[in-house]
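Long-time lurker. I teach an intro course on protein structure, and each term I like to show students one example going from raw sequence to a predicted 3D structure in token notation. This year I'd like something fresh instead of my usual example. Would anyone be willing to generate the tokens for the chain below so I can use it in lecture? Attribution to the forum is fine with me.
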Amino acid sequence: MSKSKKQHGGHERWMVSYADFMTLLFAFFVVLYSSSQVDKRKMAKLSCAITAGFRRMGAGGTTGYAPVVIPGTTPVTMTAAPRAVESAASIRRKLEAGLSKELERGVVSVRETPEGIVLSLREIGFFDSGSAELRATSMEMFDRIGALLATLQSNLRVEGHTDNVPIHTAQFHSNWELSTARATEVIRLLLTREGIDPGRLSAAGYGQFHPVADNSTAEGRRLNRRVDIVILVPHDGGAMPNELQ
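-- Reply from a regular --
Happy to contribute to a lecture. Here you go:
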């Protein structure tokens, strides 16, 4: 073979390497293109699964969150499942069974309103006259009540009520203040002793202006001095007695 032919063959060898490189580059872009065409719906589902995992580990709020969005996918909206709320009749049965002794003694009562079930803690069983501090001797009974309330999913509104006898002490200048202080004391105990979610709780003080009995009698005034725990639940339309004592 002549010298010129050897030199010509050596110059052409670079084309083989170039062709191999172009083949590899083409394959690389084919893989990238194929990856980009993965079912986007599956990717969206993966996004939601990742987000749910973070929520279970405590990352994010409890009332809502923004989903993780993978580029090129459409976010899938996920809403929190509504809490299962017991019926009024079911809650009534649970309270009757758990507080049968207290109902018999007349220190608590249960009644129905359009808003749900009202569990009344009467002053005679829980508070000294003119005081907003729960009696130490009543704590065991309160813990039983709190344990029952903790099993429910309904929101709770705690209301303080008094009779119409004016009060003016160093601690409380009016029945408004006494009723509000008793309601917030019950809230505090439900939080600290019973571990009830604070998002379920609210408090109100009504003084003497929402009586359940006649303030002109001693018995009526006794019934009006109370803290009501209103268990907010849709009315199920079932027949319920107005008062269980």
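Some talking points for your students: The chain has a mean pLDDT of 79. The longest strand covers residues 116-122.
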